[in-house]
Design brief:
Elements (H helix, E strand, L loop, with lengths): L2 H18 L4 H8 L7 H7 L1 H7 L6 H15 L9 H8 L2 H9 L14 H8 L2 H7 L16 H4 L3 H9 L2 H70 L5 H39 L11 E4 L3 H6 L5 H5 L3 E4 L4 H7 L4 E4 L8 H14 L2 E5 L6 H11 L3 H6 L28 H4 L3 E6 L6 H6 L1 E6 L6
Pfam families: Ank_2
Protein name: IQ motif and ankyrin repeat containing 1
InterPro entries: Ankyrin_rpt, Ankyrin_rpt-contain_sf, P-loop_NTPase
Length: about 475
């Protein structure tokens, strides 16, 4: 090697030692694959853009922003004492490494252990060449460390103290102003890139939400077809018809289709959940995608839902929307004293079944449960309620159905003495509750607004 190349190689090796000692384990592993030749891999590692290209980072605005961020992550990484590679290069007296680091975005006025700047450490160690390299790049000799001293005051050589004392501070001011402009430019570029990425993520979430809704619609139709075939099979068995075996085979086909569509729907919801997670991480302050409401573990279901200990549900004024991905709350409520309706079962969704289930829950003071499972059936529930009586949905959601015996309008002459006016007692009707259950991790926004979200949390004993 020529003397010039030897000096360049020495500088690069010094810089590599500074850099490598500050890389995280992941960064070290990332760079170690290049550790074959002691010189060439080092030259390659210093060009972070080459690594970005290898990993598919483009050269558009988004790519440029990411490349700059990756470069700064390496240049500005810190050790346990908050010292950067530039600080270590300054303390070690390596002017070539100092120049390379600053030219690649290192902050010449960063403070590490004990509030000491790179200039402070270079002056303290008596590295004249390092000090002379730092000053023209904006290293500020006026900055104090935690001990209350400036670089001039702790300089170990008189010549160093003289240089720092006679340095033209206007040059520093000019460089600091230039650095500030550059930082603002970088911040603006990152802001624009982040806004563009957020817009892209929002569009992705919107598209995945539509896909999930389409899957839910197909699943809902499959459930309806399954129940239709079950009803037809039961009818054939009651009438002892010869085609019972055919209808049973049709039920198995429908069950297979339901299971297939259920898996597709779960996968669509998982994709949507991950996309929403990425969006929240992109804009944690503005995303607002975290579901607000209550959280309840399985052992607390009785206290939270049925007893309403603490009166949180009553004070909120909305009926609970039970977000129950694993079906624990649905199983619990099905075997309690509730009027439980499976909204995917056509028999449970008949007008008379819903009307009597509601009347019975009011009459005996117990919960009416609409279990929607994986499908959003709330619109169907509302349609059926409005079909029973116009304005019933609002009366139910607002709890006005409990006022002035409003519920008596639901009674029909054929219901018998069990539902006569004298059988409805205030001490019981005031215990009436309405629960809506869904297995979807992210229910529609309408439900989150008109109902009180209660997220069911699994504990170890619940598996």
């Amino acid at each position: 090697l020529s003397p010039k190349d030897q000096n360049k190689t020495l500088t690069l090796l010094q810089l590599w030692r500074c850099l490598f000692s500050y890389l995280s384990p992941l960064q070290r592993g990332f760079f170690s694959v290049l550790h074959v030749n002691p010189i060439l891999p080092l030259l390659f590692c210093l060009k972070v853009s080459d690594l970005d290209t290898k990993n598919g980072v483009g050269t558009d605005e988004k790519g440029k922003s990411l490349r700059l961020r990756n470069l700064l992550n390496v240049v500005e990484c810190t050790d346990a004492n908050e010292n950067t590679p530039l600080s270590e290069a300054s303390a070690g007296g390596h002017p070539g490494a100092i120049k390379l680091l600053i030219q690649n975005g290192a902050n010449p006025n960063c403070k590490g252990a004990f509030g000491r700047t790179p200039l402070y450490r270079a002056a303290f160690a008596g590295h004249l060449a390092a000090v002379e390299m730092l000053l023209p790049y904006g290293a500020d000799p006026r900055l104090y460390a935690d001990d209350g001293n400036t670089p001039e005051q702790i300089a170990s050589l008189d010549s160093l103290a003289a240089i720092l004392r006679t340095w033209d501070i206007t040059l520093t001011e000019s460089m600091l102003q230039t650095m500030e402009i550059e930082q603002q430019r970088r911040a603006l570029m990152e802001k624009k890139q982040k806004e563009a990425e957020t817009h892209r993520m929002c569009e992705e979430v919107e598209q995945l939400a539509k896909e999930q809704e389409r899957c839910n619609k197909e699943l809902r139709q499959a459930y309806c077809e399954l129940n239709r075939r079950i009803t037809k099979h039961d009818k054939c068995q009651r009438k002892k018809m010869d085609n019972a075996e055919i209808t049973l085979h049709a039920i198995h086909d429908a069950e297979s289709l339901v299971e297939s569509l259920r898996l597709v729907t779960e996968k669509a919801e998982e994709k949507l959940s991950l996309a929403r997670l990425r969006l929240r991480e992109q804009t944690p302050a503005e995303a607002g995608d975290e579901i607000q409401g209550m959280k309840c573990s399985v052992p607390e279901l009785n206290d939270v839902l049925l007893k309403d200990v603490g009166g949180k549900i009553r004070l909120d004024g909305r009926w609970p929307l039970i977000i129950d991905p694993f079906g624990q709350a649905a199983t619990f409520l099905r075997y309690q004293d509730t009027n439980y309706l499976n909204t995917l079962n056509p028999n449970d969704m008949s007008l008379d079944t819903i009307r009597l289930a509601l009347l019975g829950a009011l009459r005996y003071g117990k919960p009416l449960v609409f279990d929607m499972m994986e499908v959003n059936m709330f619109d169907a529930v509302k349609r059926q309620l409005e079909e029973i009586e116009q304005g019933l949905v609002q009366a139910l959601l607002s709890r006005k159905i409990l006022e002035n015996e409003r519920y008596l309008s639901l009674v029909r002459p054929t219901d018998g003495p069990e539902y006569s006016q004298t059988e409805f007692q205030a001490a019981r009707t005031e215990n009436f509750k309405l629960f809506v259950i869904t297995k979807r991790h992210h229910p529609p926004e309408e439900l989150l607004q008109i109902l009180l979200p209660v997220q069911i949390l699994l504990t170890k004993g619940s598996w």
